[in-house]
Amino acid sequence: MTDDAVRVRGLRKSYRDTVAVDGLDLTIAHGEVRALLGPNGAGKTSTVEILEGHRPRDGGDVSVLGVDPAEAGVAWRREIGIVLQSTADGAELTVAELIGHVARYFPRPRGLDETLALVGLADKRDSRIRKLSGGQRRRLDVGLGIVGRPRLLFLDEPTTGFDPVARRQFWSTVRGLDTTVLLTTHYLEEAEALADRVTVIADGRVVAEGTPDSLGARQVATVVWRDGREQTADPAAVVARLSAAYGGQVPGLSVTRPSLEDVYLDLIGGSR
Amino acid sequence: MTTLGLGSARAGIELRQFWRERDAVVFTFALPVVLLTLLGSLFSGVYPGSPVTSAQYLVPSMIAAGVASATFVNLGVGIATDRDDGTLKRLRGLPTPPLSYVIGKILLVAVVTAAEVLALLLIGVLLFDLPVPSDPSRWLTFGWVFTLGVVACSLLGVAASALARSARSAAAVMNLPYVVLAFFSGIYYTPVGALPDWVIRIGSVFPLKWMAQGFRSVFLPDSVLPYEVVRSWEHGRTALVLTAWCIGGLVLCLTTFRWRGRQTS
């Protein structure tokens, strides 16, 4: 038994002659929001679908809420929530009808009004799902994922195709949830905004893991001035020293830290 | 909730979606009704040697076609759509007993089929003066032909749903074989005995021809028998062929059914 929400060791999955997941390890604590980052084809969706019990694996040990998803039944499914990558079901139903229907599968679901408020769809209650915008449809999907009060929520590329305003609304929805979340995304800002920890995968393996601001070598800043450059963990000290040396103004001074995107591109580039 | 409770909840959702989906209502439900009204009004005349008018002859055949539409076309399109739009994937991610999905579909088919038969029967009685039999043995015949026909066509519809690549193509993929088969089964072309021999031979392989013949035996007098393919209602053969299709349909379902669409690997 394990106290972790998710524990994966040596996960493997191949499709014919391509290896999608190649010995992946992943541990997610209860209450954590974890982002799984990686380029297209890195094995994110395969991994998540194996954890959701949607896909069989070729090898490795997987425990999700203490249960192997490949053998999990209805009782386990009551504990998890899944927000799929793209959906178009229930187009002719109203928002309230579909949420109300999905709620019936769970022993103690959230109320309709509470769910609608959490995902910001209270004013769309009686709208046909067909008429929702892309962002509203995704928020409905999240509503369907959380209506059963899951202990673990899977969000697979939840904001692909969103405009910036819709993305920010969606982020505040996710921040308002009190549950363990496994999120896949290829938006770096999204991982930074939501995740407690980030796991970067490339070619089916973990290439880095950490908090968004410690990932890779992000603490190391680069100080550049007219006559030189220096990498340091303490840029203030370097600037103070330079300032003293130049007697005030340091010509052409800049201090930069690598963005998460720089670190990420470096990580996945390095694995190629 | 119990599997049965969830099954009836699914039926409620399925029925609401069916009646709100214009394509489903127009193609699956209204087409047989419109065709019966049109063809019944166009055909005129009485079959010599019997009191049966051309329109009355058409009604039981169209009831068979309506049952096939409400089962075969309805399930084929419905399941292909569920596979394509993510309904099945969502259900597999929820604590759903698979049986509750099946129960939902069975109840959907039961309600739509009953409404279809009732609508066609009403048109037959009100527009074309079709006499409603009072002999209970005829209703007994109706009962078993209906039951076997519904089961056989439903199972074939479930199996055929795998042929449609997407929700959008499903209506076309299901309706073409249905319309062709209805023609080969002597639904639109009356009386059935006047069809070319090779057409009858092909039609006789499939359940629709036998279901139509069974329903004609319920609603039409024996004096119309000379216009059938053979001068008998062939109840024994009807039961045999329909039962064979129930078994064959079940085998096809079990071997071809896919929860996933084709595009997902």
Automatic annotation (TrEMBL), chain A:
It is a peripheral membrane protein. Keywords: Antibiotic resistance, ATP-binding, Nucleotide-binding, Transport. Residues 6-228 form the ABC transporter domain. GO terms for biological process: response to antibiotic. Coiled coil: none annotated. The keyword Transport applies. One of its GO terms (molecular function) is ATP hydrolysis activity. PROSITE patterns: ABC_TRANSPORTER_1 (PS00211), ABC_TRANSPORTER_2 (PS50893). It is found in: Cell membrane. It holds the Pfam family ABC_tran. The keyword Glycoprotein does not apply. Its main location: membrane. GO terms for cellular component: plasma membrane. It comes from the Bacteria. This is ABC-2 type transport system ATP-binding protein.
UniProtKB/TrEMBL annotation, chain B:
It is found in: Cell membrane; Membrane. GO terms for biological process: response to antibiotic. It holds the Pfam family ABC2_membrane. It is a multi-pass membrane protein. InterPro entries: ABC-2_transporter, ABC2_TM, ABC2_TM_bact-type, ABC_2_transport. The keyword Membrane applies. Residues 23-260 form the ABC transmembrane type-2 domain. GO terms for cellular component: ATP-binding cassette (ABC) transporter complex. GO terms for molecular function: ABC-type transporter activity. The chain crosses the membrane at residues 24-47, 59-81, 102-127, 139-163, 170-189, 239-259. Keywords: Antibiotic resistance, Cell membrane, Membrane, Transmembrane, Transmembrane helix, Transport. The keyword Electron transport does not apply. Belongs to the ABC-2 integral membrane protein family. This is Transport permease protein. It comes from Asanoa hainanensis.
